[in-house]
Design goal:
222 residues; mainly beta; four-stranded antiparallel β-sheet; 14 strands; 5% helix
Length: 222
């Protein structure tokens, strides 16, 4: 179990200039993902990242093989929320950093906070890894390293998180099924690679059905 595993999202703006008067590169902006509670160890373990027209979305796996639910979170990028020199060893600095999780019922646009959607209930064993933006409606798709679901996040719906059960469990792989990983989305489908089984799944967005594309390999070690 990771302790104080803090995550950051870094942006780089090549149109800016680096000032010699600052101890960091001014073209960089660090958005620090806060710990859950003051004085508690952080373990956001952000892997996935995607951008929509108004938000940055992150996948918080929260201990890749550990207990506890992971989360899909998002925030509105604002240079005023940057803190490039945050001292992660200082509990008071963590508690007072500009970017915090939103209070219940509040949004990223309202408060400049990180809006978090936990994958709880039947999704509590899911571990979100990679994200990709849908070119049709600016929603976000994500893969579940637990090998159970393909996920879809849409903050404009009452039910923000939707999931689609994968067609097989790959029970011969004891840790995480086929280990779904990278994904791409076009107008009609979502494609993602299963790292553990060496093949590609295609999800048809219209029919909500899956097809498998087996990759020819000489051995199981590829």
């Amino acid at each position: 179990t990771a302790v104080n595993n803090h995550s950051r999202v870094i942006s780089f703006d090549p149109s800016l200039s680096d000032s010699p008067a600052t101890p960091y590169d001014d073209r960089l902006c660090a958005y620090n993902v806060p710990p859950e509670q003051e004085n508690q160890p952080a373990n956001n373990e952000v892997i996935g990242l995607a951008g929509t027209s108004d938000r940055i979305w992150i996948g918080e796996s929260r201990a890749f093989f550990g207990a506890g639910p992971s989360a899909i979170s998002s925030f509105v990028p604002d240079p005023n929320s940057c803190e490039n020199l945050l001292n992660f060893d200082d509990p008071q600095a963590l508690a007072s950093q500009r970017l915090q999780y939103c209070e219940p019922g509040r949004s990223a646009e309202q408060d400049g906070c990180i809006e978090k959607f936990l994958l709880d209930g039947p999704l509590s064993k899911s571990k979100v890894v990679h994200l990709e933006t849908d070119p049709i409606d600016d929603t976000v798709w994500f893969t579940d390293a637990g090998g159970r679901y393909l996920g879809h996040a849409n903050p404009d719906r009452d039910k923000v998180i939707e999931v689609y059960a994968l067609p097989d469990s790959h029970a011969n792989l004891s840790v995480a099924g086929g280990l779904p990983w990278s994904l791409r989305v076009d107008d009609g489908a979502v494609y993602f690679g299963e790292y553990g089984t060496r093949h590609i799944l295609r999800f048809d967005k219209t029919t909500a059905t899956f097809d498998e594309v087996w990759i020819p390999v000489a051995t199981s070690q590829v």
